[in-house]
Amino acid sequence: MTPSLETRDLAIRFGGHVAVDAISCAFRPGELTAIVGPNGAGKTTYFNLMSGQLRATSGVVLLHGVDVTTLGAPQRARLGLGRAFQLTNLFPALSVLENVRLATQAQAGVHYELTRPWPLRRALIERAYAALEAVGLEGKRERRAAALSHGDQRKLEVAMMIALEPSVFMFDEPTAGMSVDEVPVILDLIARLKRDASKTILLVEHKMDVVRSLADRIVVLHHGRLAADGDPATVIASPIVQEAYLGVRRGTAA
Q: What is the largest CA-CA distance in the chain?
């Protein structure tokens, strides 16, 4: 089976610093992969290279077998790659519904026309409603995005990504900054997305309880390199992860 997303010897240098060092990794449909590692390990930089926010110094990024290394983030999004960020990326002056409606419009390739006002585009509006319902924001659709709490802004960004109907979902610390009450909504949403065997999900997350509950596979980065890759139980128990990520020195109890 052709991987949904793949990197081959992917690397980026900032001056003399190698932030991501020749990482080769493939991600397939029906699999949720958690990418973990200590601060500065290169996790978000690797995400940025895969999603097109950064241009690689060397190596290749393949999306459904197609070389997208030279394409920017918008082109990769149109090819089916969806990305949610650590910091929310919204249209703050627009309503919650308008934010998601713009995403459905972009996905459908529909441009605004005075002769065809939005109320006539019921299918797209209904898709926007469905995306908001999926993240529990249907009751706040008329509020301005800027007026939402941080947790609700994160939910709105996920709703916009759902509306784009990607085949690859990339979540960069999706629960960051959320209250204890808000976290389960996002985790349940990711768990429901995972049930669709046609979707590929990548997750950068520091909370190991979240990783254990969701991941089918864990990839560990350390100093920009691929340090471990495998099923959660094996990877978490490995000496390099115990030392590099969990802070347990070799020869000591976990």
A: 72
